[in-house]
């Protein structure tokens, strides 16, 4: 899943980004409101982390503008302690949740997972397809009860495919949700990742769960005709 982080305190921003990348998220950073608004408009994100006090354009203004443009990306606002008015204004401007600084990284992660889950209309932290079971909090994938070792990127791709199981996910959608801004989208890296992912998930099992629809994209399903 891909996150836009709009925070002008660079040390805090790097700290958050590092933690999120280690947890398998792709993260783009913006250090002022204008840059943040621009990226939020031009790129595709699963979630925006938005600081309230920002140079050029405040978090409240960024949030209002995005909602006016009908951008409904979930927004988690960061506010300083005791700024009650900020919290209320933030929620009124269209933010989905807020977190008060300073916060524990684990709490940030829990809020992020909850917001993304909600936006995909998903009820639990587990994604299940046939005998494949992916725990998004513990970051563990198992097939028929056997743990599968995945890299963070493989995990993210699998997560996206399972969130949209039985639907086609295009290569562009995968690059948009799994890689950050610096990714070179002309390369065939997605196919390579899908190839290794499929080996890890399907090899040795009767039913294949990850399918390629040539010229269209990929699909996680157990309902497709098996080879
Ligand atoms: Ca700030």
TrEMBL record:
Keywords: DNA-binding, Phosphoprotein, Transcription, Transcription regulation, Two-component regulatory system. Signal peptide: none annotated. Pfam families: Response_reg, Trans_reg_C. The keyword Transcription applies. Residues 2-116 form the Response regulatory domain. One of its GO terms (biological process) is regulation of DNA-templated transcription. It comes from the Bacteria. GO terms for cellular component: cytosol; protein-DNA complex. Residues 124-222 form the OmpR/PhoB-type domain. Residues 124-222 bind DNA. InterPro entries: CheY-like_superfamily, OmpR/PhoB-type_DNA-bd, Sig_transdc_resp-reg_receiver, WalR-like, WH-like_DNA-bd_sf. The modification 4-aspartylphosphate is found at residue 51. Gene3D superfamilies: 3.40.50.2300, 6.10.250.690, Winged helix-like DNA-binding domain superfamily/Winged helix DNA-binding domain. GO terms for molecular function: phosphorelay response regulator activity; transcription cis-regulatory region binding. PANTHER family: REGULATOR OF RPOS. This is DNA-binding response regulator.
């Amino acid at each position: 899943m891909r996150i836009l982080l709009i925070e002008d305190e660079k040390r805090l921003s790097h700290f958050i980004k590092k933690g999120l990348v280690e947890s398998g998220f792709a993260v783009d950073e913006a250090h002022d409101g204008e840059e943040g608004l621009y990226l939020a408009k031009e790129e595709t994100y699963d979630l925006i982390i938005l600081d309230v006090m920002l140079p050029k354009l405040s978090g409240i203004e960024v949030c209002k503008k995005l909602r006016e443009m009908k951008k409904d990306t979930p927004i988690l606002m960061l506010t300083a302690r005791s700024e009650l008015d900020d919290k209320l204004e933030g929620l009124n401007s269209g933010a989905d949740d807020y977190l008060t600084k300073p916060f524990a990284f684990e709490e940030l992660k829990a809020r992020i997972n909850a917001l993304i889950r909600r936006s995909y209309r998903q009820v639990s932290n587990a994604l299940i397809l046939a005998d494949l079971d992916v725990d998004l909090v513990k970051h563990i994938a198992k097939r028929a009860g056997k743990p599968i070792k995945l890299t963070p990127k493989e995990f993210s791709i699998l997560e996206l495919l399972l969130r949209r199981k039985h639907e086609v996910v295009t290569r562009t959608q995968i690059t948009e949700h799994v890689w950050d801004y610096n990714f070179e989208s002309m390369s065939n890296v997605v196919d390579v990742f899908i190839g290794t992912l499929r080996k890890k998930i399907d090899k040795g099992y009767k039913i294949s769960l990850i399918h390629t629809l040539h010229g269209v994209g990929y699909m996680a399903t157990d309902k497709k005709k098996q080879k």
